[in-house]
UniProtKB/TrEMBL annotation:
Name of protein: Phenazine biosynthesis-like domain-containing protein
PANTHER family recorded: PHENAZINE BIOSYNTHESIS PROTEIN, PHENAZINE BIOSYNTHESIS-LIKE DOMAIN-CONTAINING PROTEIN
Organism of provenance: Steinernema hermaphroditum
InterPro entries per record: Phenazine_PhzF-like
Keywords of this entry: Isomerase
Taxonomic lineage from the root: Eukaryota, Metazoa, Ecdysozoa, Nematoda, Chromadorea
Length: 619
């Protein structure tokens, strides 16, 4: 099945700003499970699924159903993905109507095309109640009915570091959105310093039955002096940030639905009927909204721009859709700047975006030598296995490169890839020397095999932080990649391995500059793989199992990490009497398999890949 897919930046007229949404134009209904897996694959704040209702095509219909999915669940209302959908229908598909209507779980919404790339959304406006906190004056009780705040609410405020600037809070029961109002003298830099702490927020309110989203907002007292103006110097009336880990979104770049409560609140503090100009502050992006509250409805006007009309997205180290690890593959014929590469990788928001460039001839079909660079959403990395597999799957399978073996130049030196069969490839990577780590007062049985070095003091703090002190059986360090492998008890079952409370998003604080660490792997060699459930779908036992955490490069936990086996292969060849090792990487809902063949200073990594999205980028 071939489905047109668009990725749109909403609430902006600049590429790589606003908020991204994927818009999938299926011709007919799919299962909820399929929609959810697709949304998880894109890994954007929302994926929108419109379907025509009153005709059988997207160009002539005026009424559509519309559903929105985050990477983890369906949501009842989403502004930026509605704007993105409307932009695709009007601007890309050429829908013939000036206004279109969407049937949603929040009722009927309509969107009118104002001008090219500019649209007005008609959304519901939600009533608010002010929250009463013990021993804190409720400044909003005169405008909103008062209810008692739940005990955890002030803990959330403190966890976000807002207690000193806190001026009050309001809540809506329909959307479960809570607005935390700050001192109007807060600067833009201070607003940007509010931390993302999704795991901590979830722990404070795990049920999510009172809050699904936290909005931090205020009305600047001196917008110009505080830095809250647009590129033309126009000041914003109010500003916000939005955190929704309960919907799988640590922080949202642009949240149209948040203004269904924000406009209700701030309209009480401006002249009645005034159109308000709002800014959502998000690191390196940001979004602008014109909001016009009228009665129980809200007009939201915003712009949108298509960044790409589908692209190569490949699942690597798997033979099943939505397994393994995703990578975006962009085929430019000439080098771009690192800044351009980084913006593109941030736009995709996949674990890694890869940029292969032909070197010996200027086309992908005939070239035999390539340069290759890998970028996470936050920075460039020196080596990546799954994105390499993805890139050469595209070059062999889609570009029809006729060579059986290709070489490529990387920041980690030369490497090769060989086509084994259609969709199956063998990568030849460097293998790195290891040192055993003496961590605190923990035993170090690996010192018998690898030269021992003393670990920094914070490594013991990390072992305790990940709750693996009692299962600890040693650790090794790879200075070249700055990887640490922590070896765990061989008797752990798969479920026990899966249930480790690693809290990886908090680990950056132990080595904030990443001088020593770039990633940590948890690993074990099962004593009885069959009994411990470390087997594949055909019952074949794995030689070792791993999980991989790299928050220092913007990936809390990676899904399938080929480069980790440049280290793991060097470790386990000392303890498994086989020429070829069968490895498994666990990740919730996915998982990946690797065939590893260490030899001297090199390692062959064999894996399969399949393409999920094919298209053309528009950068």
């Amino acid at each position: 099945m071939s489905t047109p897919v668009y990725i749109v930046d909403a609430f902006t007229n600049e590429k790589f700003c606003g908020n991204q949404a994927a818009v999938c134009l299926f011709g007919k209904n799919q299962s909820d499970q399929e929609y959810q897996r697709i949304a998880a694959e894109f890994n954007l704040s929302e994926t929108a699924i419109p379907l025509p209702l009153n005709t059988d095509n997207f160009q002539t219909a005026s009424k559509f159903s519309l559903r929105w999915f985050t990477p983890t669940n369906e949501v009842n209302l989403c502004g930026h993905a509605t704007l993105a959908t409307s932009h695709v229908l009007f601007n890309e598909i050429g829908n013939q109507h000036k206004k279109i209507y969407f049937e949603t779980k929040s009722g009927q919404l309509d969107v009118e095309k104002v001008s090219e790339g500019c649209y007005q959304l008609n959304f519901p406006l939600y009533r608010l109640k002010s929250l009463k906190f013990p021993n804190v004056e409720n400044l909003f009780a005169d405008k909103f009915e008062e209810i008692d705040a739940p005990p955890f609410m002030f803990d959330i405020i403190k966890k976000l570091g807002l207690h000193e600037k806190f001026r009050g809070a309001v809540h809506n029961t329909d959307t479960k959105k809570c607005i935390i109002v700050l001192d109007g003298n807060t600067t833009k830099d201070e607003l940007l310093e509010v931390p993302r702490c999704p795991d901590e927020l979830m722990k404070l309110h795990p049920e999510g039955n009172f809050i699904k989203g936290v909005v931090v907002s205020f009305k600047p007292t001196d917008a110009v002096g505080q830095g809250f103006v647009d590129k033309n110097g126009k000041p914003y009336d109010y500003v916000s940030r939005y955190f929704a880990p309960w919907n799988g979104i640590p922080e949202d770049p642009a949240t149209g639905s948040s203004h269904c409560v924000l406009a209700e609140f701030w309209s009480k503090y401006f002249e009645y009927g005034k159109q308000l100009y709002a800014f959502q502050c998000y690191p390196k992006r940001g979004a602008q909204f014109f909001v016009n509250p009228q009665g129980d409805r809200l007009g939201i006007t915003g712009e949108a721009i298509v960044t790409m009309t589908s692209v190569y997205i490949v699942d690597a180290f798997t033979d099943e859709k939505f397994g393994g690890n995703q990578a975006a593959v962009c085929l430019f014929n000439e080098e771009k700047t690192p800044e351009e590469y980084q913006k593109i990788a941030s736009e995709f928001n996949l674990p890694v975006t890869v940029f292969p460039i032909p070197v010996d001839v200027n086309d992908f079909r005939n070239a035999q030598t390539f340069s290759i660079r890998w970028f996470t959403p936050t920075n460039e990395i020196a080596l990546c296995g799954h994105a390499t597999l993805a890139a050469f799957h595209v070059i062999f399978h889609h570009e029809r490169n006729y060579h059986n073996s290709l070489s490529f130049h990387t920041k980690s030196g030369p490497a090769t890839v060989e086509k084994v069969s259609d969709g199956k490839y063998k990568i030849n990577f460097p293998m790195y020397p290891l040192k055993s780590l003496k961590i605190g007062n923990l035993s170090n049985p690996l010192a018998e095999t690898f030269d021992e070095v003393q670990a920094p003091d914070f490594m013991y703090d990390i072992v305790k932080h990940m709750n693996v002190e009692s299962e600890f059986q040693g650790a090794v360090y790879c200075p070249d990649l700055r990887y640490v492998v922590v070896v765990l008890d061989e008797n752990l079952t798969k479920n026990e391995f899966v249930d480790i409370d690693h809290r990886s998003n908090e680990m950056v604080k132990f080595d904030p500059k990443a001088d020593y660490l770039q990633a940590i792997a948890l690993c074990l060699k099962p004593k009885d793989a069959q009994k411990q459930d470390f087997v594949d779908k055909d019952g074949k036992a794995y030689d070792y199992a791993t999980r991989f955490f790299c928050p220092w490069i913007g990936i809390n936990e990676d899904r399938a990490t080929g480069s980790s086996h440049c280290v793991l292969g060097a470790l386990w060849r000392e303890f498994v009497a086989k020429d070829e090792l069968y490895a498994y990487q666990y990740y919730p809902g996915r998982g990946a398999q690797f065939l590893i063949k260490p030899s001297g200073e090199r390692v062959e990594i064999t894996g399969t890949a399949l393409t999920i999205v094919v298209g053309k980028a528009n950068f």
